[in-house]
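Q: Please design a sequence for this.
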């Protein structure tokens, strides 16, 4: 049962089409899952490295090109905006042709964006630099979508761990990236390229490497293969439209909770995180200490994601969403009341990253559980669009809150963003308890029998389908 939308006629010429997915009986699913996971983890390391290397000096480069410190924050903001805007077209491509073309194109766009940033730096064109940063955001889009690709073939009871493994891989790139920014800057000396633009030269090369790696090795396509294993109803192309994705989310209580969880956790994290270095500086912290606090925050975001995935699969999605709310609330309390205590701020930022990890992993697993197979790619793209748009607004307004109120008030606002998540969780639980649905739904997932032709195939969509 091959996906007709993956035919050679509908595949971009620079990306060769996947062969028709094998019949379920001919697949060694455990081996295929391991191989797909390995490819995604390596590409995630490369993609995370590219993003972290470029973004490390983005604000500095923007200040140099614009000549004003007031515009320095627009560069990372443009990257976030690009990630949000590109989420839907990339999701549409994946929905119609599979993960491999979508992820490959995302990395190619990210590399092109990095090239425009370098060109803007050389020509002193600030608008061109911002346009390049928007394209650079496609690299982040690829990294986000990779977590869903890991879930395509994972059985329902292991989806949390599959997603968390890919999220964890980002740790390597996120840690290495800022540390190679300086050597990247020195590498372009004598070429007429500003040192602050050097990291984007390296980022472009890394993105191209990640794209080539995915294009060559992500075969067979996990999304197309998952559809081939799904019941015949999941093959209908009309159910893969973006409208179908929105309809699927609107129709499923679990999917609505997942969307609000991912967006709320991401927005609260971004809003508090972006202003923490400023608050630390106001209380006498030097650059080294600020870097240490942010490193601890990044460790909380990524390094412990496997534990969150394990908890998702063992105790359920809803329990980990509750944990996310608790961790993020504690983080806001600690950071917002820290004052001159740098240790307390560091603890708050670590918990902020940990709470984000719990919300992202649990929300992503629940979203995948809760929508039909045919509509998943579109629903996942809508999720990333929503989370990045909300976070962009949150990051842009965080400075205003601090300027007109205080950092403590910003943390209070961040905690308040979790109230809708908690309220929806309480409203959703009665609909998915044993009295209102299958017992598995009370734990945040819906066990279902595998298709009769594939005893080891992934579980089909949940009862919300």
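A: Design:
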């Amino acid at each position: 049962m091959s996906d007709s939308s993956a035919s050679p006629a509908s595949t971009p010429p620079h990306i060769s089409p996947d062969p028709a997915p094998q019949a379920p009986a001919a697949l060694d699913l455990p081996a295929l899952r391991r191989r797909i996971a390995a490819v995604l983890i390596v590409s995630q390391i490369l993609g995370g490295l590219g993003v972290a290397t470029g973004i490390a000096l983005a604000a500095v480069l923007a200040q140099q090109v614009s000549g004003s410190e007031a515009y320095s924050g627009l560069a990372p903001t443009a990257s976030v905006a690009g990630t949000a805007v590109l989420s839907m077209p990339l999701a549409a491509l994946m929905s119609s042709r599979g993960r491999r073309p979508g992820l490959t194109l995302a990395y190619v766009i990210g590399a092109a964006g990095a090239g425009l940033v370098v060109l803007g730096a050389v020509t002193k064109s600030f608008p061109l630099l911002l346009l390049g940063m928007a394209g650079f955001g496609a690299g982040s889009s690829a990294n986000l979508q990779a977590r869903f690709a890991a879930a395509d073939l994972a059985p329902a009871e292991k989806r949390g761990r599959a997603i968390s493994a890919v999220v964890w891989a980002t740790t390597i790139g996120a840690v290495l990236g800022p540390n190679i920014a300086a050597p990247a800057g020195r590498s372009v000396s004598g070429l007429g390229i500003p040192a602050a633009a050097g990291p984007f030269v390296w980022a472009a090369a890394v993105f191209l490497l990640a794209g080539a790696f995915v294009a060559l090795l992500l075969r067979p396509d996990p999304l197309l293969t998952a559809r081939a294993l799904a019941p015949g109803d999941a093959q209908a192309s009309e159910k893969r439209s973006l409208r179908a994705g929105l309809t699927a989310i609107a129709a499923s209580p679990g999917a609505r909770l997942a969307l609000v969880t991912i967006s709320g956790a991401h927005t609260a994290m971004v809003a508090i995180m972006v202003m923490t270095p400023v608050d630390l500086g106001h209380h006498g912290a030097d650059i080294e200490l600020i870097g240490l606090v942010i490193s601890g925050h990044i460790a909380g975001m990524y390094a412990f994601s496997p534990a969150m995935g394990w908890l998702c699969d063992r105790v359920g999605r809803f329990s980990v969403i509750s944990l996310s709310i608790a961790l993020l609330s504690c983080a806001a309390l600690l950071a917002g009341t820290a004052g001159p205590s740098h240790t307390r701020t560091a603890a708050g930022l670590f918990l902020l990253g940990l709470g984000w990890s719990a919300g992202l992993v649990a929300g992503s697993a629940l979203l995948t559980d809760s929508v039909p197979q045919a509509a998943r790619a579109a629903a996942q793209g809508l999720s990333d669009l929503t989370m990045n748009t909300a976070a962009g607004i949150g990051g842009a307004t965080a400075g205003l809150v601090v300027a007109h109120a205080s950092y403590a008030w910003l943390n209070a606002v961040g905690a308040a963003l979790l109230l809708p998540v908690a309220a929806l969780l309480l409203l959703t639980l009665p609909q998915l308890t044993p009295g209102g649905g299958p017992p598995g739904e009370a734990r945040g997932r819906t066990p279902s029998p595998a298709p009769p032709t594939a005893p080891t195939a992934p579980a089909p969509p949940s009862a919300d389908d």
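Q: Thanks. Anything notable?
A: The longest helix spans residues 253-282. Residues 1-17, 433-465 have pLDDT under 50 and may be disordered.
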